[in-house]
From TrEMBL, chain A:
It comes from the Bacteria. InterPro entries: ACP-like_sf, PP-bd_ACP. Residues 15-82 form the Carrier domain. It comes from Actinophytocola xinjiangensis. This is Carrier domain-containing protein.
Length: 95, 499
């Protein structure tokens, strides 16, 4: 949902990630596991994951560069990256 | 016949069309006449640095406007480009010496002498001057670029591509697809692959729009930019098909397809590796025809399905200027009126002789047959090449040979179930020695490049003829092994993982 609070980001990210992973439930995804090594996330699916979670949380994917995407290695990294921009979205939505 | 490349360098394109470059964080648009002028100013700046016809420049970068400016500037000046996929090589003095590069441009941080930031190209392209460049024309045998493929030694093989082969391919494609007014071709595979740059040349000469994206931005930008043609490898379209299926749960299939690709698609282009019949049929049902073709780096495009001649399961009919020869064993060779080349510029001893016949015919190693209407079917491809979803080709045989140097490994095959990660399936020598196999995995990964890393090892039952994992000649049956161990290969938890 647009203007997602920081606390709401992780569940949204889990849901998005589970969509592109085979047979992994959202609640079973470890926040600090390497998405490629541990979960076999392909680079295309990583993009789809980010796009989906951005749609869910109202954070524009345009905040991120290709280098930012490469640096997102874990679910925790993605949530932290979203949080930096979700705060701005939330502030904007309350004005 | 007019040379497409000579038309490109002879003068500015007609106004009315544009190049769009898309990244995750935005996009920029340049009118094609302005792109041509910018490339001219870059060419003049390179000439000022002393670069002359035949000199080589290296480019190690993600897709960006500057990549295209350098490529077009090189064409305008008669330089030879050597494009390397970002991250696949270290852009430094060693690379320059290995491939006789006068300058190397990169988007990676660094600063060795002779290595320039590709970002500097933007400044070279600025201003309004129209420099007076020496006229350049290309003969059919002139080499404009080096293209690279995975070699059996781990070092990329370099192949000079002739202007005649580029012209011949572009003309044949234009006859089949008639790209023009209203078209916008979407390209996102690395520009280091020459064929991706074809579509920019095509835009400049035949008059249409072209969009060049980064690999990461492709899915994000497709629906927004509304292209009419998308160029991708089969693994990309497989992922896209899954996306469309997911969206089709709540809406009609054609509408779901438009949600992913936009609403203007005329056709989708694929090649490099076999596309599955299921994916081809799926896109047909979704209203987005996916045309498969066939060609190697050494042959350029040989056959292609297209709106005028399309048969699902085939790789299409043979292009004008190409001839497909099938010997008594069913092995495909290709003869070209304008060959890409007749030997590698850089390759291990014997590689050129293995692939290029004395008469210029390229031996593909693939098995094929024609149907009665002239459509070519590829029945089996050289099975030691895996094409990853980023279009990178990995030759797995040298990796397997390296793994087999361990006393604990009797036999092995390297496979990929998801076209993104490599997995080794190992037939152990005696009782599995997991520690020794793990040590060998680490040693092998250390010996190979970024795209050749094995993610994990699956320990199989000893390969055997009776177990259907060896041929009667005691060679591993790669596809059968993949089929038998698919569950273990895709399971991220089991097996021996790389450290």
């Amino acid at each position: 949902m647009p203007g997602e609070s920081r606390a709401g980001l992780e569940p949204a990210a889990r849901e998005s990630l589970a969509l592109v992973l085979d047979e992994v439930a959202p609640q079973d995804i470890a926040v600090d596991h390497d998405l490629v090594r541990e979960y076999g996330l392909t680079s295309l699916n990583k993009v789809l994951f980010l796009t989906d979670v951005c749609e869910r949380t109202g954070v524009s994917v345009a905040h991120f560069t290709e280098q930012d995407l490469a640096a997102m290695r874990t679910l925790g990294d993605v949530v932290a990256a979203l949080a930096r921009h979700a705060d701005l979205v939330a502030e904007g939505s309350t004005r | 016949m007019t040379s497409v490349l000579n038309r490109l360098v002879a003068g500015p394109p007609e106004p009315g069309h544009r190049l769009r470059v898309v990244r995750l964080d935005g996009e920029e648009t340049v009118a094609l006449p302005e792109l041509w002028a910018m490339a001219g100013r870059v060419a003049a700046a390179l000439a000022d640095r002393g670069l002359r016809r035949g000199d080589r420049i290296g480019i190690v970068s993600r897709n960006c406007l500057e990549w295209l400016l350098l490529d077009l500037a090189a064409l305008r000046l008669g330089l030879v480009t050597a494009g390397f996929e970002a991250g696949s090589v270290k852009p430094g003095r060693e690379l320059a010496e290995d491939y006789d590069l006068r300058l190397v441009f990169t988007d990676e941080p660094g600063g060795e002498p002779g290595v320039l930031s590709i970002g500097e190209v933007r400044a070279l392209a600025g201003g309004v001057s129209e420099p007076d460049l020496p006229p350049v024309t290309y003969g059919p045998g002139d080499v404009t670029t080096l293209k690279f493929t995975s070699g059996s030694t781990g070092r990329p093989k370099g192949l000079g591509a002739t202007a005649g082969s580029i012209d011949s391919s572009l003309r044949a494609v234009q006859r089949m697809f008639a790209h023009g007014e209203g078209d916008d071709l979407f390209v996102f595979l690395p520009l280091s692959l020459l064929q991706q740059r074809y579509w920019v040349y095509s835009a400049l000469v035949f008059g249409h729009d072209v969009t060049v994206g980064t690999y990461e931005a492709a899915f994000v930008a497709l629906a927004r930019t509304r292209p009419t043609v998308v160029m991708g490898v089969p693994a990309f379209f497989e992922t896209a098909a899954r996306q469309i299926r997911a969206k089709a749960r709540t809406r009609p299939l054609a509408e779901a397809a438009r949600a992913v690709f936009g609403d203007r698609i005329r056709y989708l282009w694929t090649g490099s590796a076999p596309a599955s019949a299921a994916v081809l049929e799926f896109f047909g049902e979704a209203g987005l025809p996916l045309y498969e073709g066939y060609g190697l780096n050494e042959t350029c495009i040989v056959t292609k399905n297209h709106p005028g001649a399309h048969r699902v399961g085939s790789v299409g009919k043979v292009l004008a200027g190409k001839e497909v020869l099938i010997d008594e064993h069913g092995v495909v060779s290709v003869r070209s009126d304008f060959p890409v080349n007749t030997a590698y510029a850089y390759a291990a001893p014997g590689e050129s002789q293995r692939v290029f016949g004395a008469d210029g015919v390229v031996r593909t190693g693939d098995l094929g047959r024609f149907d009665e209407d002239g459509f070519l079917y590829i029945l089996g491809r050289a099975d030691d090449v895996i094409v990853l979803d980023n279009a990178k080709k990995v030759v797995v045989r040298p990796i397997e040979e390296h793994l087999r140097t361990s006393h604990a490994i009797e036999e092995c095959v390297v496979v990929s179930a998801d076209r993104a990660h490599l997995v080794a399936v190992v037939s152990p020598a005696g009782e599995p020695d997991e520690a020794a196999i793990a040590a060998q995995l680490a040693a092998t990964n250390a010996a190979f490049g970024r795209d050749e890393q094995i993610r994990k090892v699956v320990i199989a039952r000893p390969f055997s003829v009776a177990g259907e994992t060896l041929t009667s000649q005691f060679k591993p049956r790669r596809n059968r092994i993949l089929e038998l161990y698919r569950a273990e290969i895709v399971d991220n938890r089991g097996g021996i993982h790389a450290g």
